[in-house]
Amino acid sequence: MPSDILYMGIENPNVIRKGVLESSKDLIQFLQKYEKLKAIRAEKQAQIAKLRIIYDDILSMIPEIKSELPKIDVKTLPKWDVRMKEELPAEEHEIAEPGSEEKKIPKKRMPSVDRLEAELNDIEQKLKSIA
Amino acid sequence: MSTPVFVKVERYKKVQTAIDRVKKRLEDAKIVFKRINELKTEEEHELGAWQSELARIENKISNIQSALSKPR
Q1: B34 touching chain A per CB within 8 A
Q2: pLDDT tens digits along B27-70
Q3: Contact A23 B61 (CB under 8 A)
Q4: Phi and psi (nearest 5°) for B45?
């Protein structure tokens, strides 16, 4: 007995044919968009790699700068008070050089700002004692 | 303000040159950063468009399926 061959009727075949063709077209466009996305990502990765090279370049220049500068711990240098320089007579000014600790700036009188501050603290202490 | 420190003029010039080179590279880095940001925006836009395309295809396939499920 031959096997029965069955058929299925399709309502509106043209609509379905059109739908299938449009879907195929959309799928191709979908794949094209994916290729565009891939290209953008590839360029982004290339730019990031470029940035990494620039960063490495800058990092290599820093020791070069450091090597040219004197190896002095700035924190151990004596402080240079600008206000003291303004108050003292000109002949008493000296620019301190590294290794010249014996050349100290003579302190003849307190700068006016520090004197005022000291007077203010004194007054405040007196006010507190009254209160 | 700390005590001034003195360096040889030649070394000072070398330091100045090195700093100029660093500044130039920093400018290059800024340009690259700008491009990366542009690409990020473009990528996000394409990703959105890709997603919309996917949704449209899904819809069409559903329509085909529903059309096929109404037999004569």
Answers
A1: no
A2: 999 999 999 999 999 999 999 998 998 998 999 899 888 888 77
A3: yes
A4: -65, -45
